Amino acid sequence: MHHVDDTPKLYGLMAEFNSATAIVSAARKAREAGYAKVDAYTPFPIHELDAALKLPRTKLPWLVFFGGIGGMLGGFALEYWISVVDYPLNIGGRPLASWPAFVIPAYETTILCASITAVVMMIVLNGLPQPYHPVFNAPNFSSASADRFFLVVETADPKFDGTATRQFLESLHPLGVTDVAQ
Amino acid sequence: MADRQPPLDAHAAPAPAGMARLQSDVLAPGHSFGSVTDEITSAVLRPGFRPGWIVGFVIAFGVMSMFLFAVSYLVIKGTGIWGVNIPVGWGFAIVNFVWWIGIGHAGTLISAILLLFRQKWRMSISRFAEAMTIFAVMCAAIFPVFHTGRPWLAAYWLFPYPNSMNIWPNFRSPLIWDVFAVSTYATVSVLFWYVGLIPDLATMRDRAQLLWVKRAYGVLSLGWRGSAMHWQRYETASLLLAGLATPLVLSVHTVVSFDFAVAVVPGWHTTIFPPYFVAGAIYSGFAMVLTLAIPIRAYYGMEDFITMRHIQNCAKVMLCTGLIVLYGYSVEAFMGWFSGSPYEGFMIANRAFGNYWYMYWFLIFCNGVMPQTLWFKKVRTNIPLLFCIALVVNVGMWLERFVIVVTSLSRDFVPSAWGMYAGTMWDWMTYIGTIGLFTWLMFIFLRLLPMISMFEMRTIVPAAKVKSEGAH
User: Fold this and answer.
1) CA torsion, points B345, B349, B351, B353, in degrees to nearest 10?
2) Which pTM does this prediction carry?
3) N or C: which terminal CB in chain A sees fewer CB atoms within 10 Å?
């Protein structure tokens, strides 16, 4: 009979910390040690992590910019088409393309489309909604939304090695290191 | 777990005395990430209901039922049951609309403008102030929609909705500008509020004991896990939303004031209206923030998070915007003379000494005179007194809109077209009923969602500061 391997596949190794300073320092050391597929999970935004993990700058502002431009042009086009082309109202012979009056709704649609873009694209770029993620398998991970800080080195990392990576994480003085099942 | 203890973390050495004092202003000393989380979640994740909550909820529900009754009767009978008639075609409906929209402004000011200015004191009051904004805008929207008489047709009257009659709204009308401004404002406020809730909903998911509660928060939190890259995008989105909401909030009441300022009615046709309306909106909004914050803080024991610094700052904002509003009243009076227009001159004399003179002077007392007591620190730190002042300002701001709308319309150019106006029983039932609706929604919000932004509060816990390498 062949042996069935019933140990779950590993997603990565997770080290737990209890301070913002510790997670930033651990993240920096992990990147310096050559790990590329590293992520930190924190209960609040820590701006120092962006540099420590060498995260790319998000392109969200550009998307929001184009969302706003689209909203402005779309709003103005709607007003122009309605007021000049489809339903022209002659009010005392005043010009149909009375653009100063169209500024305000176009201004509002600019803000509306830019804001919707900001929210929707933040969610989409983050890959949310994502009800399942392997990190939720880690026993203590529910504290990541309260008072604990986690560093995960993924098995997908070319430098990942079960023993060596565990030793490396232990050297960062975490509260503990656990396996994260796939 | 909720007991406060020094952070376990060895890196978090006690902060220098000066810094600790600064921090303690917006957050009581001794808090850790865990204690902040525990105290805020425990108000929601407790079994059953507290008696005070039930009593408040039932009263609010009763008042809201009165609103439902009044509005149902309105739909059956038509707007004739209201006091509006020619010459005063705009009565309670527009007064209440402007009043509610104005109240909403403080929430956006706190969450957007104060975020751009990096004011830490906004963090603990932003969540319920934003909830207040959304509920206030909902109450506001009810009035113009029902004022149309047939609200089920309002979709194509108000919005560019393709309809079988091939007619479109007139984009040269400030009323259509207002539809765009208010609907954008409502949408952006909801988005902003929801984005702010996502990480806190994840906390609720992780702390809930009951499976269905866990699942409900889990679905709403979208599976948020606090990844560093997610936070980066999240913070960028929040900052961009704040940047977008700032011009928006200033534009909304500006556009509301255009409803009046674009008309040629004496007392309305004036360039001071936009800034004066925006200041008035923030004034009444902060009065409502205090009206809500003071009882919430006491009932839920949130004194550590909503400190005297918050209360005092709200009072200072009220004093400042109140002075701008008082300046607006003075300029109106001055322009009555300086414009040289007999209609403007008559308008201001009629406001002060005409049939509605008591409204005008009561308004000056509520909005102009009484808030001057806020210059004194003794008043700003006296919570019961401050609560009363906030209520008086709420009344004053309602009177302001009543005076603007009714005195000008009831006495316009031709004496033969003059007429008096008073709200009917149905007007009052609808108005007071929306206060019930607002309160009822606040009670639901306080029971279901964390009333203070937990992830933001964690950032002002002293231990959140990342110390540079070698400092420890």
Assistant:
1) -170
2) 0.91
3) N
